[in-house]
Amino acid sequence: MASNKRNQSKRSNILVLSEALLISYMGYISHFILTQMEMSSPVSIEKLIVNVGMLTVAILLCSLSVGLYEAKLRETFRGIIRRIFVSVGLSYFLVEVLSRAFFDNLLMDSYFLPAAVSAIIITLVIFRYFTNRLGLLGLGKARILVLGAGERASIIEKRMRRDVDRIGFELVGFVPIPGDNREEGIRKEKLIHLKIDESFQQFISDNEIEEIVIACDQRRGTLPVEVLFECRLRGIEVTELLDFMERETGQIVVNLMYPSWVIYSNGFQTQNYLRDSLDYTFNALIAFVIFFFVWPIMLFTALVIYLDDGRRTGVSVFYKQERVGLNGKLFNIIKFRSMRPDAEKDGAKWASKNDTRVTRIGNFIRKYRVDELPQLLNVFKGEMSFIGPRPERPQFVEQLVREVPYYNQRHNVKPGLAGWAQLNYPYGASVEDSMEKLKFDLYYVKHQSLLLDILILIRTVEIVLFGKGR
User: Which residues form the Bacterial sugar transferase domain (predicted)?
Assistant: First the structure.
């Protein structure tokens, strides 16, 4: 345990030193660039050192206060970005106030502080990405022991098989617990046959375990509460399997959810009131900007569809279909027609890969998501957002509500043109696929924020540009 603490302390010290050097360097570079662009006057080296030093110390202290140097920080990358913005933002005002109150004779030009702060935020975000996501400096990579080796624990083995899935942690092994369903349990992972008693503490210490994940099939009478309580007192993280999967995979494992977990979680309703109040304005503004650039593409697409089969069949180039929106309200989604006019003569059907009902033009516009562009009108009407779960048809929703637990919770937010589920599970044509997509949809509903929306938009642009769409 002492060795573990020394390693954690060493990693934290290296992180503080590295970021101090980066912050100081970006402060210097910002001043250098401003002087080269003749937006700022050259200053003495002493004056520059005082200002850069004051900014560096302020950011380090604020970062420390928001937990960015906590050795056991188990935070999503979005959460780390949020903390960086808060710490640097606080530092900006702190330095501004201190400079004017006590160091008026050392004030830099007005452009210096905003430029330096902007450069520092970008640099720290990039640096944290590599240190946390790629495991540099050993940061964010906790040694984890899983209690349980049955059916519930096996989801880690099934969903996190690749090394890239385990960048954030090192899995020491699985400890079988009485009551585990071993027939459906762990198959290929390391099993650690260990009695959960006083000797368990020694095993935790000897193996430098930093987090214990509770994944046993039966808890009542089998979970060693006293031992786990002692571990928690010693600073070992104890995490429920659902919380672990949510944190590491960006999805909520719907088929493993139980009522008490839902009750004690933060629910599936946004508490971001500012974001909600600006939702329509933000989406309408983006829709207007996008429409300004893509209207020639839309006009050309409509013309091609008309010449392909619209002129012959007399069917509209647009396709309207009833979908389920916010709070279960029905609306008509608008798309460019990508299927034959008689595609649903036998009733509603799931779309499928290599669907024979899709026209020649339809294959192309689906691949590059051009068929979705008319939904800008749905955004203008307030029926859809840019980011959110994809709206489903009422006929399928009725079936999915019966067969998929918690399915209705995805209607707590407006449906969107692009979604977290589409990025992580891009194809769905059955109830089973809908279950998998719901895991990501509920994660979005639970964690929706401006930063997550921006991340989804950026990755969606990548999909469109490289033709990775359906």
Answer: 282-465
